[in-house]
Amino acid sequence: MNYDIVIVGGAMTGTTLALALSAFTNGKMKIAVLERQPVKQHQQSGFDARCIALSDGSCQKFAQIILPDGQNLWQKIQPFSTHIEQIHVSDKGHSGIVEFSAREFHLQQLGAVIELQQVGQILLQAVEQSDNIDYLCPVEIAHIERSQDGVKISLKNDRTLTAQLLIGADGTKSEVASAVNISQEMLHDYGQTAIIANVQTQQPHQNRAFERFTTEGPLALLPMKDNLISLVWCVRHADELLQADESTFLTRLQQQFGWRLGRFQRCGQRFAYPLTLSRAAQHVQARTVLIGNAAQTLHPIAGQGFNLGIRDVMTLANILSYAYLQQQEIGDDALLQQYENKRKADQKQMIQLTDGLLTIFANNLLPLQIGRNLGLMALAQSSMLRQYFAKPTLGWI
Ligand SMILES: Cc1cc2nc3c(=O)[nH]c(=O)nc-3n(C[C@H](O)[C@H](O)[C@H](O)COP(=O)(O)OP(=O)(O)OC[C@H]3O[C@@H](n4cnc5c(N)ncnc54)[C@H](O)[C@@H]3O)c2cc1C
User: Fold this and answer.
1) Which of 80, 118, 388, 389 has the least C-beta neighbours within 10 A?
2) Which residue segments constitute the domains of the chain, with CATH numbers given?
3) Is the CB of 53 inside a 6 Å radius of any atom of ligand 1?
4) pTM for this prediction
């Protein structure tokens, strides 16, 4: 079967790219999305149990993708999301506290929290309604071969697909990257694991998100539907917390977070994610592009992984669809290079921001402790500084 583009990886980045390319070419581009995991059985990656925070800029990007039924993608997702009105940042054991509020930035929301499983269903339904997108799953790739004229992807069920361009949206240990000899560099192993769980609190969250830095690692609480909160707790020794009974786990969490939301009452199933910072040495190669987690995987401290990934998606979709409608060759090296050049600065800035925050807040050296408290106090005092700090993280790039 012949396609214009084959996307390997059918989760957040892969499906969003397929829908954006389809929308921007008025349903003309022929796209295949290959996914290894069966639908509704995603674990550890893809549409799994996680909740993630979308920046306001990412919500606006979803709104630019018009679906075959005339609605945009954000209109489909928004009813299932919880908006964030305020973000509260604190450092355990120190006085510095900063609050970012939507009102201050003249916004209705700073961002929104989505459940990946739920959004996965919305994205897959939209893909199903697009006649020009084939979502093939579960499938395994046997071989990838590139030539001057195109790409040939052989599947383990003996099926062969051909395309002008191959996109790797297949996450951290990208098979596409290794098939085309792009090395994945591990820039930092934080020695931390993120424990995620849904937690019920005594007091309503009032659409506030919390980020708290502790000596064990950062923890984030995101507002969810039904007045639940989604916990992302990054710790060094996860096993003990994963095995603890519910009441011990909640007591430990309470000790780290404090009482801003009253007593932590209940906690759902806990899941664990080891945390590293990794980046592909190149993001484009002959007839190949890597996007999302396949291009770079960040620590979730600042909640920027997919917010960065969707900017890869939209930049690539704009470049490719324009070329396609102009009847240019979409696998052309110069076009792919144009994409890489456009994305470099943003990717570098987000990697530095995330890694820098971790270094500053994970360190107990006295000058750094004083420095970060002064930093938080300065942020608390100055609206201009807060705007400067929030700009990249709100996704207005
Ligand atoms: C605890 C935690 C909290 C986070 N919180 C936030 C947040 O608040 N905000 C935010 O923006 N980001 C957040 N992130 C990051 C965000 O979840 C990811 O950036 C995003 O989900 C990555 O999507 P992806 O589609 O690029 O990759 P993945 O989710 O890794 O999906 C890759 C897909 O490719 C498939 N695949 C892999 N190999 C193959 C193959 N060979 N053939 C076919 N298919 C294949 C996989 O099955 C998977 O479905 C968080 C991450 C973690 C771990």
Assistant:
1) 388
2) 5-55+113-186+278-357 (3.50.50.60)
3) yes
4) 0.93
